[in-house]
Amino acid sequence: MSHHLEKSRNSCALHGALQLFEAIDAVVPVIHSTSGCGVQHYLGVTRLSGGNDTFGSPPVSSSNITQKHVVFGGGSRLREQLKNTVKVVQGDLYAIVTGCSTEMVGDDIPAMAREGRDQDWPVIFANTPGFSGDVHQGYHLAVKALIEQLPDIVKTQEVIPAGLVNIWGIIPNQDPFWRGNLQELGRLLEGVGLIPNLLLGRDQSIASWKQVPGAVLNLVISPWGKLPAQLLEERYTIPSITLDGLPVGTSASILLRRLTEQLELDPIRTEKFITREESLLNYQLARLADTYYRAGFQREFALVGESAQVIGIGEFLVKSFGMLPGTLVITDNPPESIREEVAGRLATILPGYDTVVIFSEDQSEITDVVRAGDPGLILGSSLEQEVAVELGVPFLALSFPLFDRIVLERAYAGYRGAATLLEDMGSAILSCSNYINEAS
Amino acid sequence: MSPLRAKAPRSREKRLDTLGAWFGKVSVASKEFAGDEIAQRIRTFAQSSNDDLLYALRILSGIRNSVTIIHGPRGCAAAGLYHTAIGSNTRWIVTDLDERDTIMGADIKLRKSILALYHRYHPSVVFIVGNPVIAINNDDIQSVVEELHEELELPIVPVYVTGFSSQNAVSGYDTALHSLLKYLSGNTSTATKNETLNLLSVAEHPLDRKEAVDLLDIFGHELIIIPDDSAIDVFKSAVAAKASILLSPDAPEYLGVILQEKYDVPLIDVSRPVGVEGTGRWLKSIGAFLGKENVANELHTRKAAETARQIGGFSLKGLKVYISLSSANAFSVLDLVEELGGEVTGLTITHLDRLHIRQLDELTIRTPSLQIHVSDGQAFEEISILRKLLPDLYLGDSTHLGQVARLGIPVVSLESLAFVGYSGVVRLVRRIKSALANGSYELSLAKVNSPYQEAWFRRSHNWHIKQEVK
Fold first, then answer.
1. Domain count, chain B
2. Under 8 Å CB-to-CB from A24, ≥6 apart: which residues?
3. For B78-122, how does the pLDDT look when each residue is reduced to its tens digit (9 = 90+)?
4. Do B245 and B341 fall into the same domain?
5. Domain of residue B62, residue span
6. Residue in B with minimal Cα distance to A52
7. Residues of A numbered 93-132 whose beta carbons fall under 8 angstroms of chain B's beta carbons: which are they?
C-alpha cells in the first residue's frame, strides 16, 4: 500500500499520456472521463512547466461524462464525442485516453477505437486511468499505444533516412526543458553524421512516428525510455544505447564515442566534432574563473529532480565544475530494479565525499532532507524555493514544477546546455544577496 | 429539517435549474426562465471544463492552517500544485489510490494519512475531498471522519464532490460551503446576534477583498470575512452576525442562504460591486439595511469623483466589447463597459440559472437581442461566435485566451486582475488602455494555425447542443 503524498509532482497516468500526445503535431487527444480531468492537467501540469502548450489552452476534446454515464456506461457518449471531434478538430491521429471513472465503469475502449477505424478515422487508444500510475506510466502507455497501433492505421511507407536514431525517455513538460534538450541532442547526433528522430516538439508529427521502426538505434535518455526501446527491439530488432541521465557537458563526448563505435561511424569526424565542442565549453568555463573564485561558487549543493536530470546535471557539476554533491533527491519513482544502481552511482559521484541520495516525491520529506543537508545552493523545482529562502541560499529552478520561469528553447543537455546551466546557476548565486557571506 | 442534514446540497441544476450549455438571445433566455420547466442541455462535442472538485479546491485553498486530503488517485490533486504556485498555504495531500484501492476500498489508507498529518502538522482542520473514484466506489469516508474526529478532537470535514454529479462546477462551491458550515459552525441554530457583519467572499482576488473591506469600514461594523483567507473559527462567529453581505451574488449565495435560513442571519440583497455605479449600488443597499444611507451616498459621491479623475475621461465609445466570465462577473462587467461608453456585443457566461433572472429581465428591456452563450471552457464555441462578431475588445478569464487572441482581437485577462470597487475600475481601465494601445502580439499570434476545421465554423454556434432526453 502506497503512502500518501504531499504536493505530488508526478500527477497521473492520464496526464502523462496527454503530455506525450499533445507534444506531437496534429495528434488530438480525446479524453474520455469527467470534465475536470483535462483542466487538472492544464492547471497542474501544463501551466507549471515554464510555458504553455501549442494551443495555449486545455486539451481540445473531452467527453465530460456525467452521472448518467457513470450509471449506464459512457460508450455511446464516447462514440458521439469521437465522431464530432473528427469533424471539428484538425488532426492526423485521434488518441482516446481514459480517466478513472470510465475505466471503473468498464467502457469498452478498444471496441470504440475499432468502430472509429471502421469509419476510416485514424484512431488509437490508451487506457490511462489515474489510479494506474503517475505521469511516467502515462508516457509508457501512450508510447506503447503509438508503437503498437500506428502500423495498423497508417499503412503508407515512409522513406527512412539512413542513420536514423529514435530518442526515448524525455517526457514533455515533466522535463520543463524538453524541447531545448531534444534539439540539443539532435544537434549532437547530427554532429557525428546521424539523423535524429526527436518524435516530440515542433514539426514532429505522425510522419516522424511512422519512421520509428526503420531507425538504426534507440537512444534512451532516462529510465522511462527503456520500455519503448525494449518494445522496438522485440518487434523490429532495433538495438539501443541506454543512458541513465542526460548527457550534460563532457558526458556528451562519451555518448558520441559510444555511438560512433556501435554504429561504425567515421571516428575522425566524431573526434573533430567533440574537440570543437569541448574546446568551446572549456573556453566558457575559463571565462567564469574570476567570478567563480571571487564569489565562492564552489560549495555544497542540493539537487532535486527526475533521475535523468539529477544524474546528468549532478555529474557535470561535480566532475567539471568542482561543486560538492550534498543531497541528491530523485523524484520520478524509478523502478525498484534500478534504484540500487542509481543510488550507488550517485553516492560515489565524488569519491570519498558524503553524499546523501534519496528517492522521494513527497514534498515534506524532500524539504526535510534538503534542510538537514544545509546546502550552500539549491537546484530543484519551484517548490524548493521555500526552503532555499528559509536557508538564505541561492536557488535555481530547473525541474518540474517550474512556475517562476519561462522556458521556450532553453536546454541543459549537451555542451550548449552545460554552458546555459552555468549561466543560470552563476546568475542565481550572484543575485542572492548573501553570496558574499557564503563566500567568506 | 436542517438544510445541512444531507451529506451534500442538491446540485445547482436541481436547486436553481442551472444551465451549463445554452446559446441565444437574452430575451429568449428571460422568457425561458419565466417558466416553470427548464430543459437541461447537453453537448455532443465538448472540451474540458471545470468540475465541482476544482471549485471546491478553490475554496479550501483559502482556509488557514488546514490540511486538504484529496482521497483519490494522484491526478485529482494536480490543481493543488497550481494553488501552491499561486500562493495558497494549504497543505495538499493525495492518498494516491491505486487499482487495488479502487476495488478493495481505501478507508484504512485514509485513516493512516489523517493520523500522520495530524501528528506532523497539528492543523486546525483537515478536509477530506471526494472525487470520481471515491464516489463510484462509495468509499466510507464518513465513519473514518467520525471516528477520528472523536479520537483526535480535531475538526475533520468531508467534502462530497464527485466530478460528475453536476454539470456545473459552481455546485462545488455549494458543496464545500455546505460542509464548512455543517462541520465548523457548531450546533447552535440561533446564536445571540452581535453587531458584526459577514462579508461572504468566495475565491476572490485578495485586492478585491481589500477594496470591499476598505469601503465597508465607513459603516463602523466589525467584519468577518468568510471563507476566503479565513481561520476556521469564523464559521462559528458568522452565525452570530447582524447580517451577511455578498461580495458576489453567485459564488457565495448558498452560504448566505443557509446562514439566513438556519441561523437567522439576514442576507442583504446586493449586486456585485463592480464599476462605479455598481459599487455605489452595493454600498447603498448595505447602507439602507444599516440605516446609514447618507454615509453610503457621501462615500460614493467622493469615490466616484476620485475615480473619474483617475481614469481621466477614458471612454470605450464606439468600441464593441465581448465579455466571457463567470456569470456574476460577466453581468457586472457588462454594466461597467456600458458605464464607460462601450457596446457589449455578446456574453459568454459559465452558467445561467434562477439567480440571474433579474439581470436577464433588465437586459431584455435594454438590449433584447444581445447574445448570451453559456459555457465553461468551450473554446470552440466561443471562437465560432467571435469570428462572426469580431469585437474590438475581449474581456475574459478563461484558459483559452490565446485562442481568442489569435483572431486578432485585443484581449484583457481578468483571471488574476482585481476589478472590484472603485480601485478596480482604475485597474481595469489601465489594462484596457494597454490592450488597445498595441495589438501587435495578437497579430503575431494570428500567424499560428487554429486547431479547428474551418468548415465547422460555417455551422450554427450551437449545432452540437441538444435538449437532454430524460
1. 3
2. A93, A199, A200, A204, A205, A206, A208, A209
3. 999 999 999 998 999 999 999 999 888 899 999 999 999 999 999
4. no
5. 49-184
6. B402
7. 99-101, 104-105, 129-132
